[in-house]
Amino acid sequence: MVKDNVDSNERNLLTCFEILRGLDKLIPERICKYILQGQDPLVLEDLNQLSQTYNGEKRVYGRLGFPGATNIIYYFTEKKQPIKARALFYQQWTDNYTPEQIIRFGKVLAATYIENMRQSRVYSEQKNIDVITPNLPLWFLYLFLDGLVSTLFSYNQSTEKITLERQNWSVQQLHQLLEIEQKGLGKQLLFAIFDRQQTPESYLKCFYYVFMINGLLPYIYEHLEWFKTLPEQGLSRAGQLQQLQYIANQDKLKQDVIDLLVKQSTSNIKAISELATTLLLSLPIDIIQAELQVLLDQGTPKQRCHAINLLVRLSVNRKILEEALTRQTNKTVIKTIEGALSRLSGNEDAKQQEIELIIPPFESIVEVNLPSKARDILQQNYQEILVQQQKKAEQEIQYNQEYGYKITSEQQRYAQLKTITVSDLDAIFDCLNGKGDIDQADIKNKLIYEIILNKRRLPSLPEFNLYHLLRAEKICHHQPNSFYLGLSFSHHEILLRTDLRQLVEVMNKIDYVPDAKRTIAAAFLMNYYYETTAEVDPNLVWPFFAENSVYLDEALGLLPNQELQNSDYFFEKERGIKILTFFPKLLAKYVTYLLELALGETQSLRLLAQKALSMLPDIHYRVEEALISTKQAQRILAASGW
Known about the structure:
Elements lengths: L2 H15 L9 H11 L5 H11 L6 H4 L16 H17 L2 H12 L27 H16 L5 H7 L5 H11 L7 H6 L21 H7 L1 H5 L8 H12 L2 H6 L1 H7 L5 H12 L3 H14 L2 H13 L4 H10 L3 H26 L15 H32 L5 H10 L3 H11 L9 H12 L12 H12 L4 H10 L1 H4 L3 H10 L6 H10 L16 H6 L2 H6 L17 H8 L10 H8 L4 H11 L5 H9 L4 H10 L1
Helix pairs in contact: 1-2, 1-5, 2-6, 5-7, 6-7, 6-9, 13-16, 15-16, 17-18, 18-20, 19-20, 21-22, 21-23, 21-24, 24-25, 26-29, 32-34, 33-34, 35-36
């Protein structure tokens, strides 16, 4: 390594730990000598003693900016410098530093660890690392979490910038570091990738960066058998969910770990079994069917019953179950097969109904221009709002004078309104007619939106239609999404009179959003605080979902969640079933699944599923089957609630 590089590396390392000089004048240089040359290893003991000695704002790991913690927001400017310096280290690490130097850097961070420290509500007493797995040494966890989670999370950077900053990271490099420390330790790396043992659930999304490491998928294939045994080797509940979510985004991997998915679908942890089942059902039927038939012959009674229920969901040929029935001796398994054969009969009846389901056509909405009168209305609306806002601003000034306050929100809004010109109003009129776009600041866009819809004068014009409303919404929200679209249904009657397929067509014509169909489906199915299905006409909704049932599949868990991993939002099961109740005839592929829910323990799902199934003419036969179920709870529910 040339001298300039040595000096540069030393300068950056000094910056990483310079903030500790106030506690010990010599320790930054001692740390650098240890990392770069391997000298003075006693500095680790001294640093750990220093970490134990000071409390409050002098706490060592706090001064460094909590390396390795994922639940920190870095408020204090003096802590940003060491964080930035460490981020630079992680960008350059394999170019400028040897593996041994990198390991020693991790051991320095690990020396700040305080065992058994509990998280406090006081910021300066925050716990100093989330130990995501006990399978790996602490120094490695510090490197891994600080390099791929906490230093990135502290800046909230774009995905593109993060990818660029960590492009010199690779799974093979991480594996090598572990092997240098201890031969055979490398394979434990997958626990760092997937496990999340001490991480608060709300911060799991920060680990999205971990899956961006170069070479991860090839590395998993290189260690595929070990990867499939992670749950048996102690992978935590959160880790197992992370593993399944990663698999969900890899189409080929899903097929190559089908045996893992089958095992996980029988897990005693509901969230794991549901997600694994969803992944199974998203695979080609012939692949799943072969694997389930093996489980049906070789699994435990519980696993056999599970395999039977999945085969019914797939609507397999009844001969498979009839042949299996002749080979079984366990009474519970026999009863399960008998019930499954009966449910398959119900599926066949529903399929006959589905053939009779006719999806009505829809008429396209004709695009028309607003008349010149609409431009006069915009002027009238603006003058009214301006006068009203002037009064509010004057009242705010008077209020401040009387009570000694310095509130300025109404005054600022008035000042913003006064910036709107005649040219702006002309541009709004043209934009509503599809002749140009509004290029203004977001705050001004919202003011423009109020001008357009004030007292509903414009929407009352006979020419005003969905084109004009969506263009107004686009002005307001700049980047429209399903959340705002769902809210609009409660604010604008015109949407309540619109077939969702018409909405798709108009959205696509005006380039409203990149994926109109998913945006509309999400407005109805996403777990937002409001519910779009409350006021709509079912006959304007179900044809869209009949033509795009893939979104119902996702809501019901028959396909994996397509939202960003660890997103707080997802298609909700209850809302999916409610959409099914809008259909005049039930789609056959949902019958067996709804029967499970209709006899399940979750009341909200049970009632909705029963309502959806009530449109089947032979539903009383399904109830009779439930009454002779081997499960007492199902018998009670069927007899008393349906």
